[in-house]
Design goal:
With about 325 residues, the chain is mainly α. It is built from 13 helices and two strands; from the N terminus they run H-H-E-H-H-E-H-H-H-H-H-H-H-H-H. It has three domains: about 100 residues; about 50 residues; about 140 residues, no CATH class.
């Protein structure tokens, strides 16, 4: 047999027969048993837990005095410390079938190294994210310069996109986004069933977002030119009113519901809402200055200073409200 696991079992059976035969020749009473621990397909914590449980069952049935550990390589031998806590291992036997021992060691080292890289965000960005980004750029450049290489570029693009996503943790960010959207859906559903204002503010915000997207798409499709000034005006004229309205409606709905429910999180939403609104207004002023420098910096500076004062006021108000328990006093 070429399968290393099968050969390990056969080797264990052969050792058992050899030990039993030697004991018979010496006229000694020795009981020999062969036990196979399978673990799990995915090597790791789950596999170690299964092996530990299987070994507990073996020890309970047999209660061995001595144990010979038979494995097919380094991967199995990593669990020896786990086994030594439960049984007395007097010898080990490694079975290597039609494969290089150094090759297996190299494979285990590379696998372990890649696993450590993927779990460390900083290393992942360097060793996976940047190569992935390079492959993405190369594939796009190939399509632009040589249409005949579209097939090769597509493969490179997919591989690069995967490495880029894993390297920069975009898969985790996407999962976080899905969990957030799921939480929003549950909140809206509960608010709707309870007749809370949050439901209506969220639904109105979604409607405004759809209208804003339609307006922006229409403007983009019918624009004569696509320069920086066009995109700045697209935000300041068409995007800003919708975004500001969505933020105000969403935060206001949560604040009103929390106020009537005497939930202290109302203060958090008040500070968050004020900060977002001030930021959007200051950003709007800054973009207007870029589009029309003739207006001067005065409106932008005044807006920024007023924003800092207003934000500071609401932050202080929230702190006093929490300490004085204003909501509970209502």
């Amino acid at each position: 047999a070429e399968d290393s696991d099968v050969n390990s079992i056969l080797r264990a059976v052969g050792l058992a027969d050899s030990i039993a035969e030697g004991a018979r020749k010496k006229k000694e009473k020795v009981e020999v048993e062969v036990a196979t621990l399978t673990g799990d397909r995915d090597v790791g914590v789950e596999s170690d837990i299964k092996i530990s449980r299987q070994l507990d069952d073996v020890v309970k049935r047999i209660s061995p005095d001595e144990t010979i550990f038979v494995s097919d390589g380094l991967g199995d031998e990593q669990i020896i410390p786990l086994l030594k806590d439960k049984v007395n291992i007097t010898a080990t036997e490694r079975v290597v079938v039609k494969q290089s021992e150094r090759l297996e060691e190299t494979y285990l080292i590379i696998t372990r190294y890649l696993s450590e890289i993927a779990s460390d965000p900083k290393r992942a960005r360097t060793f996976l994210g940047l190569p992935g980004l390079a492959l993405l750029i190369f594939s796009l450049a190939s399509v632009a310069q040589a249409p005949l290489l579209v097939g090769v570029a597509a493969v490179i693009f997919i591989v690069g996109g995967y490495l880029f996503t894993i390297g920069f943790g975009l898969d985790r960010q996407f999962s976080t986004l899905l969990n957030y959207l799921r939480g929003v859906y549950i909140t809206v559903k509960e608010a709707g069933s309870q007749g809370r204002l949050t439901f209506y503010s969220y639904m109105t915000s979604i409607l405004l977002a759809i209208v804003a997207a339609a307006v922006i798409v229409y403007r983009v499709l019918n624009a004569p030119t696509y320069d920086s000034e066009f995109f700045l005006e697209l935000y300041t004229v068409h995007g800003f009113p919708f975004i500001l309205s969505i933020v105000v409606l969403t935060i206001l709905g949560k604040m009103v519901d929390d106020y009537f429910e005497k939930d202290v999180r109302m203060w958090n939403y008040m500070v968050l809402g004020t900060s977002l609104i001030i930021f959007l207004i200051v950003l709007h002023r800054a973009l207007n200055f870029i589009i029309s420098p003739a207006e001067g910096l005065t409106p932008l500076v005044v807006t920024a200073l007023m924003g800092v004062i207003i934000c500071s006021f609401f932050v202080k108000m929230a702190q006093i409200g929490r300490r004085a328990n204003w909501l509970q006093a209502q």
